[in-house]
């Protein structure tokens, strides 16, 4: 496997984990906000969810050989945290 493919895979994986954390923070904002602020937090969470889905598509486009044992952990994290908003 080429070095640039490994680096790309690692970058995409790191983005995935960062977006999980950012989505959790967005969910906390939504849970603690009220009124008009809640609508803004919901919109933010929808955008974050769409961005994470795009990151997952980039990951899926990587050659299979570049995927490694952390992919199972990524899938488990995805199953644990999904937003009811968005696609």
Report the portion of residues in β strands. under 5%
Helix content: over 70%
- Low-confidence parts: 79-87
Computed CA radius of gyration, to the nearest angstrom: 15 Å
**DSSP strand tally:** 0
Task: Tell me the series of helices and strands, N- to C-terminal.
Answer: HHH
Question: What is the general shape?
Answer: elongated
Distance between the termini: 34 Å
Helix/sheet category: mainly alpha
The average pLDDT score comes to 75
Q: Count of helices?
A: 3
Question: How would a textbook summarize the main sheet?
Answer: none
Structural commentary:
- The protein has 87 residues and is mainly alpha-helical.
- 77% of the residues lie in helices and 0% in strands.
- It contains three helices and no strands.
- Helix 1 (3-32) runs antiparallel to helix 2.
- The chain starts with a helix and ends in a 7-residue tail after the last helix.
Compose a concise summary of this entry.
This protein is an all-alpha fold. The chain contains 3 helices and no strands.
Task: List the topology elements.
Elements: H1 3-32, H2 36-61, H3 70-80
Helix pairs in contact: 1-2
Keywords:
elongated, 87 residues, 77% helix, disordered C terminus, 0% strand, mainly alpha
């Amino acid at each position: 496997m080429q070095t640039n493919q490994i680096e790309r895979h690692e970058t995409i994986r790191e983005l995935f984990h960062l977006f999980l954390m950012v989505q959790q923070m967005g969910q906390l904002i939504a849970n603690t906000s009220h009124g008009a602020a809640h609508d803004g937090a919901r919109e933010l969470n929808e955008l974050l969810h769409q961005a994470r889905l795009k990151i997952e598509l980039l990951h899926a486009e990587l050659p299979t050989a570049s995927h490694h044992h952390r992919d199972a952990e990524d899938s488990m994290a995805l199953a644990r945290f999904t937003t009811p908003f968005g696609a």
